[in-house]
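Hey, sorry for the delay on this. The queue was backed up all week. Below are the sequences that define the complex (chains, strands and the ligand SMILES where applicable).
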Amino acid sequence: MQGLTNRALRSLFIEQVRPDVVFTEFVRVKASARKNISGNDRQEVTSSSGQVPLVVQLIGSDTEALLAAATTVQELGAAHLNINLGCPYGRMTGNACGGGMLRDPERLAPILQALRVAIHGSFSVKARAGFTEPAELFALLPLFESCGIDFLIIHPRTVKQRYAGQADHRLTAEVVRRTHLPVIANGDIFTAAEGHRVLAETRAAGLMLGRGAINDPFLFERLRGNAPSEIDVATRHAQLHAYLQALLVRYRNLFCGDQQVLCKMKEVLCQVRESATERPVRQLLRSRTLAQFVERLEIFFVGGQEEA
Ligand SMILES: Cc1cc2nc3c(=O)[nH]c(=O)nc-3n(C[C@H](O)[C@H](O)[C@H](O)COP(=O)(O)O)c2cc1C
């Protein structure tokens, strides 16, 4: 997830809850740039500890540039690549890319075919439920199959919907029925109960967790039955405190300067949305300096006194 699942956050998750697989933020592949992958993205790719498979996600629209990027990231050690066909935010690489590709099968087909040949390890697709309607996604399933995609991740909102409404996992179930490819269900899974329900109702091969995991890393363990699916407010506060503390240490190492660290911590906090933590999170988001943030973190979650 852009702005969130950087190498520091991934390493925390790997250490604490060991997801089966982790993904990079999308790597923008621009046709025009001389170096079509940024230096930071290169570091993201090489940061894998090897303990948990790292999937490198590319977003772009230019076949040659995507092929060059796939070659580069594989030379850097990437074994698993994914292409983003879901991002709703338009033209960030020059042409329509991400979710915009879902309405342009003629441009998409040669890209997927060429990438499949160039990618030696697994090659997956992350897609939304069409650009304007699910029929656009269903129509692409034969292409995904004929290209030899290894698995398909579905976030069942259309691109036009952006984040409005609910992820409609009846569409995920329909994709599972229509394809022999393994389908991973993604979208609006915030509790273990929701995850189990989505798995049962869609018969998907697995789940991808986004905002729900950023909100509560233990969601992975709750889904596995290794951590309680429900916890009281005091435990939730203690777990959030420990999570933010551990992340802060890592972010201080990765990012430069207090303001950047503060900004990146706030990006994570923006995804922590539940009534049990609403007040302290709101106060933390109002911190103007990192020192203030650190002080408030201790007061809110350890001292228990909140500012008026
Ligand atoms: C801040 C933010 C950044 C995201 N960045 C990416 C990204 O880089 N690649 C991607 O495939 N999806 C990205 N997404 C979409 C999520 O991966 C996911 O598909 C979507 O949020 C629905 O799943 P969730 O409800 O589990 O979060 C992003 C979503 C958000 C909110």
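Residues 20-208 form a domain with the TIM Barrel fold (CATH 3.20.20.70).

I'll add it to the shared folder too.

S.
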